[in-house]
Specification:
- By secondary structure, the chain is α+β, with helices and mostly antiparallel strands.
- The chain folds into two domains: 72 residues, 2,3-Dihydroxybiphenyl 1,2-Dioxygenase, domain 1; 74 residues, 2,3-Dihydroxybiphenyl 1,2-Dioxygenase, domain 1, CATH 3.10.180.10.
- 22% of the residues lie in helices and 34% in strands.
- The protein is built from four helices and eleven strands.
- The two termini are 32 Å apart.
Amino acid sequence: MKSSQTTDASMAGLSTRGQAFRIKSIDHTGFTVASLDESLRFWVDAMGFRHLYTWTFETGRFIEQLVGVPGAAMRLAMVEGPGHSIELLEYTSPPERPAYRPRSSDVGSVHLAFYVENIDALLGHIAGFGWLPVGEVQTVKSGERKGLRLIYVRGPDGVTLEFLQLPEDAPK
C-alpha cells in the first residue's frame, strides 16, 4: 500500500473484523529513565518544557496489567513542549531493571526529532546535562532538504534525540 493510500485509509477509518476505527491524534512519547528528578532537570531546565504533573503508581493490578510487568511500580512525570508532550517513567520495581543503550542501528532503537534554532548553541547547552552528540553535525548537500543541519544526541539513559535546523533561506 502506498503512503498516500495509508493516509487516506487512516483518515477515513480502518476496519478490522467489521469494526471501524480511526487514529485521532498523537498524545505523547514515553521514555523509561533511571532518575525522574534528573530527567525532569533536563527536560525542564535544558529543553524548556513545562512540568505538568508527577504521579506515583504503587504495585497493583492496574499498573501491572497496563505495562505487562508483574510487580511493577513507578513514578511518572509529564512535561509539555512545543507541540508535543513527553512522559518520563522511573520504575521503582521490580528490582531487576537492566539499562539498554542501543545504537541507532540496533533493531528496536527509537529517537524523537525536534526542529530547533541555533543547533550549535543547543548542543553546548545540553552537554552540561549529560546529553552528547553521537557524531558531528551533518548538512544535507543536495535535494529538497539541501542546507538542513542535523545531529543525533544521546542522554545518560540511552535515549536518543535528533535535532534539525532549517537553512536560513528555508520557508518558515
